Amino acid sequence: MKGLRISNCEFRIAVALIAASVIVGLWPYGRPSGAAPQSGNDVRSAGKASAARQSSGDAGPWREAEAGYQYSFPRDHSSHDEYGIEWWYYAGNLQTKSGRRFGYQLTFFRVGVNRNPVNPSRWAVRDLYAAHFAISDVDQESFHSFERINRAGIGWAGADSSSYRVWNDRWEARLDGKAHVLTANDGDDELSLRLEPTKPEVIHGENDISQKGSAVGNASHYYSLTRLQTSGSLIVGGESFEVSGLSWMDHEFGTSFLEAEQKGWDWFSIQLEDGRDLMLFQIRRSDGSIDLHSSGTLIEADGRATHIPRDELKLASGQTWRSSASGAVYPTGWTIELPRYNLSLSVKAAFNDQELRTNEGTGVIYWEGSVAIEGSSADQPVRGRGYLEMTGYAGAGMGQVMR
Q1: Do residues 198 and 190 make contact, with C-beta atoms less than 8 angstroms apart?
Q2: pLDDT at position 204
Q3: Domains of the chain
Q4: Contact of 365 with 353, CB cutoff 8 Å
Q5: In the list 86, 132, 159, 265, which could disulfide-bond 166, CB 3.0-4.6 Å?
Q6: At 357, is the pLDDT very low, low, confident or very high (cuts 50, 70, 90)?
């Protein structure tokens, strides 16, 4: 969710259940020696469903997100193996010295399958790991996206619980001091970035949980690093670029998120030029209404954060774009009104086709891409950039996969 991201927010919304039962059924004993890493799709909304179920041999249920959790950093950057669903999401807007603009997303998912497998073999599947990597070439209006799905195997993928490192094949996020170091590549596309936090971690929701549904367990522990100074390099279509800019990091963990009647979500991460940051998400229900558990967080330039409940935010969709590939119709223009904070924003996609289509993996389809921000704050003009994630516009409703 990135708030809601399960698939990222994220709810940060990543997002694709790997039908773990299907994967395990087809590939029960591990990848043959020397086989290439699996390519698959979105776990962001992925394993949530299977994680909530108990596999045979599981000694007990996965832990649920509950109020009163005590955060500690950098400890909580690491994996929380007792929870059934977890993801680490990075996205940002970058540019070269000459002004050429790019966006990027790199997300890692851990989906619990069997908390305590009876089979002692290293090939036994306790968790499945997925990852998404995308680059938006804004000036060329070109979108490049890739995915990975693996079991832990002999180091193919994993997430450390003692120190922060998560990886899938040769894609990786890790800490170097306080900096987050990201690497990913596929064919002619690659990123190598160093992210330096300029604000402390922001915990979303109330009472240390981000509630997504009416049931007590339908929640996550969710925090963000909302402003990371970023530098490094991109390779796009075989051409190399030195880039710098701002990134955003989400981390969520829990076990059960959405409910059956919750269809999908729209999630925004916004970085304003005046130093403030904003996270908002709305959960859409099957009857067309907006769920009362939608919310947001406003982060001041000095890092102070304020929770924004559903009744204090107004989101309205505007311009739409129809994907010729999936048939989905996405709102690529939005207005955000926060009357209490005298903040009015217009959100517009940097370009329309930033749809991730995972036809060779789980088949989950969602839109995640760079956006431009304009508006006013206390009658003064304000601008910024951000990322927008929209799920549930094509295929099955997210509530069916994330329960």
Answers
A1: no
A2: 97
A3: 2-401 (2.40.370.10)
A4: no
A5: 159
A6: confident
Q: Contact, 153 vs 122, CB < 8 A? A: yes
Number of other CB atoms surrounding residue 84 within 10 Å = 29
Element (H, E) at 263: strand 262-272
Taking only the tens place, the pLDDT of each residue in 152-174 is 888 899 999 999 999 999 999 99
Q: Which tens digits make up the pLDDT trace of 26-62? A: 222 233 233 344 433 333 333 433 444 343 344 458 9
Query: Alpha-carbon distance 131 to 374, whole Å?
Result: 31
Q: Which amino acid is at 132?
A: H
Exposed, middle or buried, 1 (CB in 10 Å: 0-12/13-18/19+)?
Answer: buried
Place of tokens 């269809």: 263
CB 14 within 8 A of CB 43: yes
Query: 280 with 336: CB under 8 angstroms?
Result: yes
Sign of the Cα pseudo-torsion (339, 344, 348, 354, in order) = negative
Phi and psi of 24, rounded to 5°? -65, -40
Mean pLDDT check: name the lowest of 17-21, 63-67, 200-204, 235-239.
17-21
